[in-house]
Amino acid sequence: MKGVLFNVVEDVVSEHLGDAAWDQLLEDAGIDRGYTALGNYPETEMRALIAATAKALGHSPRQVTCWMGRRAIGHFFKRYPHYFKPMIRFVRFYRAWIGLSIPRRASSMPMPARRILSAPTTATPA
């Protein structure tokens, strides 16, 4: 798995849960290294990070994966805008052609802006 995926997950976690949360998740997942965008890393490390995040927030790994994925797209856009420009032009054209506005879908899984990762996992997420 490419390191850029780990970098984006780090960005999402740091943005929504704080910088200390990322360090705590690495520790909880048993990972003692950083990631470079061009490096290749085992998929098991990403699974461990997802599992640690799910445990810390009291959600399922599937919910956390969806949550991270929804938030990661903006970070990918910031890092690699040239990949998104053709898609943006198509969406604008399509909206104009069919004459409707495509509303933004609200997240089906609200997540707290900040949460202490050492909180009990039995707590109901805010």
Written account of the structure:
It is a single chain. With 126 residues, this protein is an all-alpha fold. Helix content is 61%, strand content 0%. The protein is built from five helices and no strands. The protein has helices spanning 3-17, 19-28, 43-57, 61-79, 81-98. It is elongated and about 50 Å long. Mean pLDDT is 80; it is low at 106-110 and 112-126.
* Spatial extent as radius of gyration: 17 Å
Helicity, as a percent range:
55-70%
Averaged pLDDT: 80
- Low-confidence parts: 106-110, 112-126
Number of strands: 0
Counting helices, strands and paired strands, the structural category is mainly alpha
Largest sheet: none
Distance between the ends: 32 Å
Count of separate DSSP helical elements: 5
Give the helices and strands, then pairings.
Elements: H1 3-17, H2 19-28, H3 43-57, H4 61-79, H5 81-98
Properties at a glance:
126 residues, mainly alpha, 5 helices, 61% helix, elongated, disordered C terminus
Quick summary:
This protein has 126 residues and is mostly helical. Helices cover 61% and strands 0% of the residues.
